[in-house]
Amino acid sequence: MRRAVFPGSFDPITMGHYDIIERGLTLFDEVILAIGVNSDKKYMFSLKQRLRFLEETFKDEPKIRVMSYSGLTVDFCKEQDSEFILRGLRNPGDFEFEKAIAHTNRKLSGIETIFLLTSSGKSYISSSIVREVIRYGGDCSDLVPEVVLPYANDVWVKANEDT
């Protein structure tokens, strides 16, 4: 079985992530959407919410599993018997950053990283941009899957309750 792990914080999942995941499904028998937990990082959405976003978005896709993990991604891949890491690239900056990680992961474990270029209409979307749109009450309906929208509105309302 060809299994890939697509790691990320998914804070929140974007249509850019969705694009890579959908296309990755054509290459692999199973794709594990793996939310990496970093206790030093402050997230906009809780782990429970981010897991729900992924589970709900791909509820009808039997080739997808949603999990969370801490520690090295390659260790998680070994635990899940995955020989591949799936990553999306939006621009040359992403490539340079991801290339160094891919080389390190292969040296540590032999696990290969497969890069897919984001579709041209989605290459501008990043989680950090989406969080800014949400933070300031902008329309993010073209940037995230539908399941995220009510939560995005809640974040904006809570941020503006005291103003």
UniProtKB/TrEMBL annotation:
Substrate binds at residues 9, 41, 73, 87. The gene is coaD. Belongs to the bacterial CoaD family. The lineage of its organism: Bacteria, Pseudomonadati, Bacteroidota, Flavobacteriia, Flavobacteriales. The keyword Translocase does not apply. One of its GO terms (molecular function) is pantetheine-phosphate adenylyltransferase activity. The record marks 17 as: Transition state stabilizer. Its EC number is 2.7.7.3. Residues 5-132 form the Cytidyltransferase-like domain. Keywords: ATP-binding, Coenzyme A biosynthesis, Cytoplasm, Magnesium, Nucleotide-binding, Nucleotidyltransferase, Transferase. It comes from the Bacteria. This is Phosphopantetheine adenylyltransferase. ATP binds at residues 9-10, 17, 88-90, 98, 122-128. Pathway: Cofactor biosynthesis; coenzyme A biosynthesis; CoA from (R)-pantothenate: step 4/5. It is found in: Cytoplasm. PANTHER family: PHOSPHOPANTETHEINE ADENYLYLTRANSFERASE. Homohexamer. InterPro entries: Cyt_trans-like (IPR004821), PPAT (IPR001980), Rossmann-like_a/b/a_fold (IPR014729). It catalyses: (R)-4'-phosphopantetheine + ATP + H(+) = 3'-dephospho-CoA + diphosphate. Reversibly transfers an adenylyl group from ATP to 4'-phosphopantetheine, yielding dephospho-CoA (dPCoA) and pyrophosphate. Its cofactor is Mg(2+).
